[in-house]
Amino acid sequence: MQAPMVVDGTSIGGDEQQRGVTLAPCPGDERPGAGSEKRLLRYAMMPHMLCPGCGHGIVFEAMLRVLAERYETLDTVAFVAGIGCSSRVVGYVDACTLHTTHGRPLTFATGLKLARPELDVVVVTGDGDGLSIGGNHLIHAARRNIDLTCVLFNNEIYGMTGGQLAPTTITGAYTSTSPAGNHERPFDAAKLVEAAGATFVARAQSYRTQVFEDIFARALDHKGFSFVEVMTDCTEYFGRTNRLGNGADLLFSQARAEQAIETDLAERPTLTPVPPKAVRPVMEMGVLHESRRPTLEEAMGLTGEQR
Ligand SMILES: Cc1ncc(C[n+]2csc(CCOP(=O)(O)OP(=O)(O)O)c2C)c(N)n1
Ligand code: SF4
Ligand SMILES: [Mg+2]
Fold first, then answer.
1. Does residue 54 have its Cβ closer than 6 Å to ligand 1?
2. Under CATH, domain 35-300 is a member of which superfamily?
């Protein structure tokens, strides 16, 4: 029989108590208010399935920190996700959650928001889920300007299914389906979604979680379709296949690819695997577009009393 997971002496109650799970102190827990995001976790789902060093855990924890500051409980917040390692994280948050089919979280979220406009609906998707099989739904959700917050975890690969090429994989990178290096050019997700009509578009990195947290909070406040692309790293497939080192090495390579800081470093190739060389492009970070026009719910009259 598996021994109960007891990491330190802090008892936390609820279903986590039934499983004998206790919380480990994390670096930074000594900060005032730090650690409060842990109350939003679904302990019955632990241990989680993310690989050591995966950027998705960093981003997910940052999302929880923002939510913990804004909500006592997540009863009025719905998380909707597709399928993928990124999408899987919604299973770990103690909110109303829909873990849907691959590529379709925005369709479920659209139905949910129109039926229950009073809910705050957050969509978590991956670059495969949101831009490959679900790319069509993404551009139409943006065009409709439905009031959803969509966070796309871009790790430039299909992580969950064994590291296949994604529409975001950088040119030259090795994946399990591009053994000679990727010959294609990746999507610029943020530009695509802005052109499709989203009224809030931003890009952030798992490397700088404070910036991501500020952006995520603004996206939640925004009325209309908010899209946040967050660059995260798949250590297990993207990192290992391209011989890019561990999670920390990958985070450092993100720092070099950010336009706002270290532009001198950014001009140098940051990914130097076996040839053909894959160079992580320099990307603009921050809020890239913000505007206001009627949301789909407003256009349909689902406002005021009817909401
Ligand atoms: C209809 C359908 N096609 C394919 C799959 C297999 N599949 C599951 S997850 C996934 C890719 C996920 O990639 P991404 O969204 O980038 O998530 P990541 O694991 O990289 O975070 C695929 C192809 C599926 N589950 N359903
Ligand atoms: S396979 Fe990649 S994306 Fe999936 S959990 Fe592991 S490191 Fe993260
Ligand atoms: Mg991916």
1. no
2. Thiamin diphosphate (ThDP)-binding fold, Pyr/PP domains (3.40.50.970)
